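Protein: SLC26A/SulP transporter domain-containing protein
Species: Alternaria panax
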Amino acid sequence: MDEDTYIARLKSKILQTTTPKQSQSRFAVPESLPSGVVPYFEEEPTAKEWLCSFRLTRQSIINFLCSLFPCTSWLRRYNVHWLLGDAIAGLTVGFVVIPQAMAYALLAGLSPEYGLYTSFMGAALYWLFGTSKDVVIGLLARSVSINQVSYLLDTSAPSNCGPAGPTGSTGCFNRPGVKQVTYLVVGHTVGSLLVGEVITTIQTERPGEYTAEDIAKALSLLSGFVLIFLGLCRLGWLIELIPYISVSAFVTSASFTIIGTQLPVALGITGIKTREAPYKVYIGILKGLGRTQLDASIGLTSIVLLYALKNLFTHLETRQPKRKRLWATLSSLRMSFTILLFTLVSWLVHRKRPRDDHAFRIVGHIDSGFTHAGVPKVSSELFGLVAPSLPSIVIILIVEHVAIAKAFSRQFGYEVNPSQEILAQGSSNALGTFVGGYACTGSFGASAVLAKSGVKTPLASFFSAGILLLALYALTSVFYYIPMAALAGLIIHAVANLMTPPSALYRYWRLSPFELLIWVVGVGVAMFVSLETSIYTSVALSFALLLVRMARSEGSFLGGTLVYRLALPSKDSESGSEDQGSNTETRAGMQTTGRMVYLSSNPGNSIPRIHISKPYPGIFVYRFNEAYNYVNKARHMDRLTSYVTANTRRTSSQDVIPLKV
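Structure follows.
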């Protein structure tokens, strides 16, 4: 746009918005532009333009359909090198999955094979829809995530660590780059516990009407549909609305609750109602210590063995850094080793005993194959019964999965799409019900194992599905002898590290004492009422605190002051000082550069010795400490009005205001 056109359009705009008398008396439009000024005229936004931004085009529809299947972007470039890495990583994770999936199915009140069904469908479907090469969907423990963070943050690998993977990473595990990963460890143990509570509640209210399997499938199907809807509508940003402090309190409460439900199994104590409030469960355990059985020897020994192996491999990782990857992989397999060891002990004890004569509780018969596959037996009435528990389930599923995907994407330098991850998770939950699965989500621990094993693409989960398929058809006779106390010990070991450490609580206190109070209230409600009520209470309190902060937000008027930067001259610099702007001079070999900065003029917000001058007469600079919205509009406007009124005088319509361009 040339200068004449710009001036003409500016005059036309003034005439459109004012009367002729006002435009002549109040505005002095320049006849020419100053030198160096680039003319730009911005049109007013219209509702039509906003509506047109949502118009569907053929290309936008094609792009959307392609984004639903991210695998199409890397399958075309798949090669033998990637296949080898994916096969090794997938098989390794498959062996880690088996015992943990069975344990968490028992936590939900289901038979062990349902855990295998769930993990199989998560592994078989994720590679089609997922955008992360490191995520594993299933029923897996999270305790390994704490133990493996140091390995995940290792940045000692050479830069030439292999060809680039399909997601933009180098394809190797140790990659120079990010030295810190912020992640959220929620744990599918929590999801399984919530499913178990829903099953218990419905069966108590409607005894004999619905089986545990039907309730779990209905909850998984409904949550899957919700997740698919969120994913298709690209609403992954909603996860940012979930307060972290509420999730932290919920996970800590769930850890106490899970340990309380598994201690009676690990000790062989019977007659304890583990679905009651946690404080009642712990009181019942203390009263029943005299009824411990032989199961206690297996349960306590398994816990001690798991911690011993964990500490041993951690020590070896420190002492032998060159074999760090080997020891970390063996550490991730310690649960599988423990279950195999006690399964062997159980077989030696029971091999000559009658089938109905057990020295301690064992898993027992497990159906081979997909005997529970079929269309879920659901009804509108059953959907209505599980619907009240749906929000808490969906929150936990989304928070963990997206947090895990983001953590690994930052670590390995590629991007993930949260909405697409939610879609992949929803597909696994909804379709998994047709083979017998229930609600599942991502696993930080298993994902760490997958990454350490040299995964290259999401196709590695397909090989994990193969191991699970083999277990369902060929290893069910071995699963018969797994001690229940050993599985309980595995769960206790897994959830012990989920509790919020004291250092984190101290950090909450330093950042915001009110948030620590919300955390305490959330844990207290969970211990004395229920987990579901806990998460709703803490989320409601967090939103209430947010609204109060927004409504009572502060602002400050700014004034200007000169700030000088002192810098020693470089040895290689020439005799003349470099051009660093105005207010520059050199004294005694030092360079002082002054620049205008704006600081708060409110008393107490700046150093008292600093002189802060007001801007030009009639100009006020106001900074909002929080977002400006309808909640705090009245507070800010009252302050602005009173301040401007006190520092200005009234004008008349006859005053001429020159318009400078």
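Remarks: The chain is about 55% helix and 5% strand.
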